[in-house]
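Continuing the series of single-chain predictions for the mutant panel. This is the parent chain; the variants come on the following pages.
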Amino acid sequence: MSLGIAARFARRELRGGIRGFWIFLACLALGVAAITAVGSVRAAIEAGLAREGAALLGGDAEMEFTYRFATDDERAWMDETALAVSEVTDFRSMAVVTRDGATERGLTQVKSVDGAYPLIGAVELEPDMPLGRALAGQDGLPGAAMDPLLADRLGLAMGDRFRLGTQDFVLMARIGREPDDAGAGFALGPRTLVATGALAGSGLLQPGTLYSTKYRLDLLEGANLPALEAEAKARFAETGLRWRDARNGAPGVAEFVDRIGAFLILVGLSGLAVGGVGVSAAVRAYLARKTSVIATLRTLGAERGMIFQTYFLQIGALSLLGIAAGLVLGALAPLALAPVLLAQLPVPAVFTLYPAPLGEAAVYGALTALIFTLWPLARTEDIRAATLFRDGGQSGRALPRPVWVGLTLLLAAALIGVAALFSGTWRLTLWTAGGLVFALALLALAAWAIRIAARRARGAAGQRPALRWALGAISGRGAEAASVVLSLGLGLSVLAAVGQIDGNLRGAIARDLPRQAPSYFFLDIQRDQMPGFLDRIEGDPTVSRSENAPMLRGIITRINDRPASEVAGEHWVIQGDRGVTYAATQPKGTKVTAGAWWPEDYTGPPQISFSAEEAAEMGLRLGDTMTVNILGRDITGTITSFREVDFSTAGMGFVMAMNEAALAGAPHSFIATVYAEPQAEAAILRDLANAYPNITAIRVRDAIDRVSEVLAGLAAATSWGAAATLVTGFLVLIGAAAAGDTARIYEAAVLRTLGATRSRILTSFALRAALLGLGAGLVALAAGIAGGWAVSHYVLETGFTVIWPSAIAIVLGGILATLLSGLAFAWRPLAMRPAAVLRARE
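Parent structure:
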């Protein structure tokens, strides 16, 4: 009965419209829209990857091997299973151009293909020609197609010659598009396409050099991919085979999209939390205006429960309206921007309406609305009618009944749990939630401290009435300090944290590493080339240091005679092949943290020294056994020591090292790092490349620049998410300013009656806004720096320094935002006639 009456009252009150609830609706809708849009774009990309999986992969399935080509048995099984098979090799090399006695070199990612490539899709070339014709070449030289970026860098025109290893090629075309490029993963150098047969005399595919082979299979329509995968892995379990198929044609892209999407949704959830502050403020303001209505209902015998239900239903209906508006906006925005997004995205996407992102965003919006409206609604339950009539609702308990406090906490826990479930990143979700709770608590404490400080400073304002009025307004009961500091401060806190994280990530890549990183990585140095290589490096006074080590690549297949994935889960070390080295004696500078290195002349069963940090993450102990597949051969060793490995220096670091007798007989090459003065780098590269054309040199600064480009894209996406949070905070700030409009009108009327000028009153309003903005900016800066440090230190595991330009911009932004919103609502109070205002207040 009570619920029916409450619903009737709620419906009647809603007939009066939604005046005063525009900020409420905007905050809720904007937060839901941001989450919906991010989720919809992620779903569109995932659908595109699923639909185009075979095209991205280059076939219905792919079998990949490291350091070698498929054996006769493996190739026979492929030919029996597939309608067609295409063989592709992939490796890095140096493209060399000699012109007028000068030599130019550029790092390139070489893809060599056979006549069947591509099985699906087509390679687009400029000028337009079949790939076979381009690779056939001219004038007795094999042809090549090259990425325009590399061709321009080397100054190559059509028909010009260049060299890979010891083989000359002629440039026949530029690459416009590769059908399988998105599934190729991260590459340090631009692409060059050649025919595999043309590399026979290049010296680039020798035993032990770093290359991989990929066999794409064109299968019968409707082929059972899981069954074929199981059969291939069972038949070639000990060969180091890696299998991919059209179910996930670009796993690296899919994982990246999933992770960045989850992160951006959490940033959007932060924006929704900022909007929640505005929602709570709007509900409090609305209930304050309904004082006389609530008092009348209580006087007529209405129970507390019915009053709560009446306004809960009203706010609930408005919340549903805001959520619905956000869902519509978030779903339609990607559809409207689909042509632009498709042109920018490097992967296919299918833009349509996806129910899952809409459902997730609706759940987020509903929980947020409940959390931020339940508290102010619950407090009306314990306020008596007499109290409401007497002082307009300013008295009563600060907190609602414990049951409502407990329910609010339960809903907050549910929101965190749902966010973790939807994002799939518990750790990041908990960090985000902890950061928001910390920021809200810090901002609430700061708002209280600002009021106390303003009250104490008021007396010291002396003969500066505008400042004294501003301080009095800030310190007064029911002042807007709490709303301004919470709304703007939380938005600025998120933006400050993102700015600090972004700045420190860029600093770690672009500033910190070059101080300690080598000038070059040299790959594919053959054993018989090492003496000459070392003579050139060690005799150069400009070289401060060099390191070298034998290099093999292996796949960890088993740990303690169990599949590695059962022991280590999805740890990155067992995902794909890893660099493996060997050493007779303990290398200089190596710190063993547990166990002991093997004797110098040890020739017994294989022993392994493993990275201590990764071993702890994988749950490894001394005495565990590990099986590593190298060149199709399984080698099982015992872990006898753990050692420190620092990957942050961009120097040489191997997760796993073995004794020399275990690996020395396998075909392999050497890698080396060279630390030299910048002015000597070009000469070192020239001499070594001329003497050993098969060697690949990777300039570390170029690699750092490539990584920085990727980080710049991530930073841009994150910054847009933080900007949405700040826009929500600014909306809340406008709502707070609008809610205080009545008080400012009365204040201006009183001051003008007492002789104050319009300019002095306006100055007082501006000072009030600026001081609140300064307070919000300073607190946000502290919260943002703390959050940025925590994420950098514990999540990203990088160093941290305060990025002061970003920090100063946050403080100035806080002052400017509050000043603009305050002045926007200052003109109306100054334009009102004092007599009319004071008569209406009687």
